[in-house]
Amino acid sequence: MVAESQNVSCANATCIVGIGACTAVGLNAASTAAAVRVGISGFEEHPFMINQQGEPYLLATVPSVDPALTGSDRYIALSTSAIQEALEPLQKMALKKQGIKVVVALPEVRPGLPENLSEKIANHIMAQSNQQYIMNDVRMAFNGHAAGLMALESAHKHLSNGESEFYLIGGIESYIDPDTLDWVEDNEQLHVPSNAWGFMPGEAACFCLVCLADTANKYKLPVKVKRVAISTAHEKNKIKTQTVCIGEGLTQAVKGVLSKLPKNAKIDYTICDQNGEAYRADEFGFMLSRLSKYFTDPSDYMAPADCWGDVGAASGPLFINLIAAAYEKRYAKGPYTLLWTSSESGERTAALFWTHIEERKIN
Description:
One of its GO terms (molecular function) is acyltransferase activity. InterPro entries: Thiolase-like (IPR016039). The chain has 363 residues and is α/β, with parallel strands linked by helices. The protein folds into two domains: 14-218, Peroxisomal Thiolase, Chain A, domain 1; 226-354, 3-Layer(aba) Sandwich (Peroxisomal Thiolase, Chain A, domain 1), CATH 3.40.47. It is 31% helix and 24% strand. It is built from eleven helices and twelve strands. The longest helix has 16 residues, at 71-86. It is globular.
């Protein structure tokens, strides 16, 4: 049996009360998590774009989005249903009009990234306001892989200051652009038969509705996951440089959340954005060599890029969805899950989450 752990129940704990997702393996949060759990792959040959070897790109694209759709319109198409799904808990409540602040994680600056992306996404999100909530404060974070978890930490600080009862945080990513794919391939990062250490480009959107624990209790909202701690550090030895990364940035980030781990507790499971690149595997290995004593099983981790490809800025929120699904379907390995994400610009973000694990009796 698995004993119930210490309950992270303080009034200022940041809680996830709504999640919406759109990925290559699922068009909502539940189907995405189920697909990843059983290892379904979303990779397919692109119908008309070919790589520098003259072969069709093998990509993880969202099946409901037109392959020919490009630019900001593609990001908007990815995000629409995920935003609406995340906000469903509010739509079921008899609320006075709520002001909801929004933080959206986006890719780092790179070839193929639309110049008007911020404006287009902000306008699209604000247009989804209705009689129950208004979203007129939309901020962007162009920090790539680490941006989603960084957005959650920003929301936690603002919620704790009483600026708003609810925050919507999320990430949108798409490598499905000819200039972006050329850039990935030029940097020898594309996974092809001649480059086994590359990654599979993907696309996705995921959004989380967050609030403090006392707000969730006030409105009787079921809590999916609670944030314990988030820490961001900087890795000086970046990818695509002549330096050698020994995981110092990731180690520092993980140490930052371990200080909040209760005495005698250990990390039960890890979800990370390893994507097939040797650089990411190396920094993970170096971090574990220093901190393995804090893990129930250091080798027990999940890298969902095997299913939905590299989803960049959407990574953190999508990882949170996997924790929530494991709790709701009762297959979580324990109460404490570590997430970590790694941006090319050097940001390393680690996040510790807690879920309620009921005692399971074996008959």
